[in-house]
Design brief:
With 149 residues, the protein is α+β, with helices and mostly antiparallel strands. It is globular, with a radius of gyration of 24 Å. Strands 1-3-4-5-6-7-8-9 form an eight-stranded antiparallel beta barrel. It has two helices and nine strands, in the order ααβββββββββ. 11% of the residues are buried. A hairpin with a 3-residue loop joins β7 and β8. Helix content is 17%, strand content 44%. It has one domain: Beta Barrel (Lipocalin), CATH 2.40.128.280. The longest helix is centred in the N-terminal third of the chain and has 21 residues. Keywords: Signal. This is Lipocalin-like domain-containing protein.
Length: 149
């Protein structure tokens, strides 16, 4: 009786140890870029050519900006509105990284344009999710405070 109880206990412990050590914890899905971080005005600082990988600073004579509200993105060039479109954020599996990524999706000529997005309080980067896809980097435009001019 003692031997069968010991064998049973050993078997249970062995199964428990094997099941605990053989399971790998799945990587946590990245948090979606909160819309609240996007809201505001962003000024282009650099762009990267996807074909040759060369990063160039923004042209000071072509000041490009994005303005995000909770549901709309407006593109300006030298202070003139050139495009306004609704946008949304969604999680998709990236064919490049093979991971769940956050995408900013806009529409252009009734086609959806998804771009991988990374945003924090001061920097916004958008990239076309393709091996030769270009990317752009923006810095948050800080509002002028009274008496700073």
């Amino acid at each position: 009786m003692y031997q069968s109880f010991s064998s049973l206990l050993f078997g249970i412990v062995l199964v428990g140890v094997v099941s605990l050590t053989s399971c790998s914890k799945d990587a946590a899905a990245p948090a979606a870029a909160p819309t609240q971080l996007l809201v505001g005005q962003w000024q282009l600082t650099a762009s990267t050519n996807g074909m040759n990988g060369r990063t160039s600073p923004a042209d000071p004579n072509q000041r490009r900006e994005l303005i995000f509200t909770a549901q709309q993105m407006t593109t300006l060039v030298n202070g003139t509105v050139v495009n306004t479109t609704p946008y949304w954020l969604e999680q998709r599996n990236s064919p490049l990284t093979q991971h769940l990524e956050t995408y900013l999706v806009t529409t252009h000529d009734s086609m959806q344009v998804p771009q991988r997005v990374h945003v924090d309080t001061t920097t916004l980067s958008l990239a076309i999710d393709a091996y030769d896809g270009p990317s752009v980097t923006y810095q948050r435009a800080m509002p002028l405070l009274c008496g700073t001019r």
